[in-house]
């Protein structure tokens, strides 16, 4: 027996004192009303309703039970309204995980813009160097800059595609000169980030692929550390164009070998989140906002080597589109 359902049916019957009318208002059959009342009375071990062929009335016990049932149903309705009100408000908190290269560039502007729209939102930010260092259950949404997406169990929204560039500072170039060909990189001081090829870089030309062996003078886990080292004049590095956009625009860093075709140079900034039923409204609002921000930016201006926002990847995992009926 579904006791709560039986209580709701009994409460409507107590209001109507008519089996047919109670069934009509509830959208169920007369037989269901009858069986539900019988099950409830058997469960309680008392008679709640006096019924004859012409008249329906509550027993004294039934009257007391109806009063308590009415209060219970009011409390349940109030609880439902409280939850319904809460889920309609995007305010609250979000656990955000972000690759350090993204956290130090676009993320903070994105969060500031979103919080200006939703001032009640709070953020718990976890910055990582390697996506493997973050467990799926530790975040609500994750921003990852990857050459190849590795976790297909999440809903994957590509926000932006960008490409690597080879960069150096004016100070370094003044002391060492700029390489004119990819092969000349072998004689330069090279700085390597953990997310970049470490032993050799490959280039494409009309004759095929050329492999250039590099001799790193520094390996660093963090792309941010490598960028600062390049700005300090320590050497040449291979970094994402979006990651060094501001340094290139200001002239702090310069692109080298711009005519060379660097292999395996494309990266994607992904927005990752769990495709769960009944997706929290705060998360849905934030995801929609982030995707719209990048789509608008792509339409307003085209960055070099930067492409439009793409469609959702791994649609079989996109369970946020499913809706479950609570019976």
Automatic annotation (TrEMBL):
Region of interest: Disordered: 301-327
Question: Some GO term, biological process aspect, for this entry: which one?
Answer: DNA-templated transcription
List the CDD domains hit by this protein, alphabetically.
PBP2_CrgA_like (cd08422)
Q: Record keywords: Glycosyltransferase included?
A: no
Q: Which GO terms describe its molecular function?
A: DNA-binding transcription factor activity; sequence-specific DNA binding
Q: Has keyword Transcription regulation?
A: yes
Q: Which InterPro entries match?
A: LysR-type_TF_proteobact-type (IPR058163), LysR_HTH_N (IPR000847), LysR_subst-bd (IPR005119), WH-like_DNA-bd_sf (IPR036388), WH_DNA-bd_sf (IPR036390)
Q: Which UniProt keywords apply?
A: DNA-binding, Transcription, Transcription regulation
Which residue numbers delimit the HTH lysR-type domain?
Answer: 1-59
Name the residues that span the membrane: none
Write out the similarity annotation: Belongs to the LysR transcriptional regulatory family.
Which protein is depicted? DNA-binding transcriptional regulator, LysR family
Report the source organism.
Paraburkholderia fungorum
């Amino acid at each position: 027996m579904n006791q709560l359902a039986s209580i709701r049916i009994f409460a409507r019957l107590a209001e109507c004192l008519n089996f047919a009318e109670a069934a009509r208002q509830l959208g169920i059959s007369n037989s269901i009303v009858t069986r539900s009342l019988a099950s409830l009375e058997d469960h309680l071990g008392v008679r709640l309703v006096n019924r004859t062929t012409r008249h329906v009335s509550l027993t004294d016990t039934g009257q007391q039970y109806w009063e308590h049932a009415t209060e219970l149903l009011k409390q349940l309705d109030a609880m439902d309204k409280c939850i319904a009100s809460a889920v309609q408000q995007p305010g609250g908190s979000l656990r955000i995980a972000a690759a350090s290269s993204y956290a130090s560039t676009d993320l903070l502007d994105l969060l500031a813009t979103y919080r200006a729209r939703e001032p009640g939102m709070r953020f718990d930010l976890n910055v990582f160097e390697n996506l493997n260092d973050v467990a799926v259950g530790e975040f609500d949404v994750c921003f990852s800059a990857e050459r190849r997406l590795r976790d297909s169990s999440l809903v994957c929204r590509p926000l932006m595609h960008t490409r690597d560039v080879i960069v150096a500072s004016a100070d370094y170039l003044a002391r060492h000169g700029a390489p004119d060909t990819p092969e000349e990189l072998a004689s330069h001081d090279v700085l390597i980030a953990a997310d970049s090829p470490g032993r050799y870089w490959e280039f494409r030309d009309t004759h095929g692929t050329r492999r250039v062996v590099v001799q790193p003078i520094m390996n660093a886990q963090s792309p941010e550390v490598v960028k600062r080292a390049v700005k300090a004049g320590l050497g040449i590095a291979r970094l994402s164009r979006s990651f060094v956009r501001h340094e290139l625009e200001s002239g702090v860093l310069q692109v080298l070998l711009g005519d060379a075709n660097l292999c395996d140079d494309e990266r994607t900034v992904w927005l990752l989140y769990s495709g769960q039923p009944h997706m929290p409204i705060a998360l849905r609002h934030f995801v929609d906002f982030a995707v719209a921000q990048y789509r608008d930016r792509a339409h307003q201006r085209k960055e070099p080597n930067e492409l439009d926002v793409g469609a959702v990847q791994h649609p079989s995992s996109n369970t946020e589109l499913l809706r479950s009926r609570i019976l």
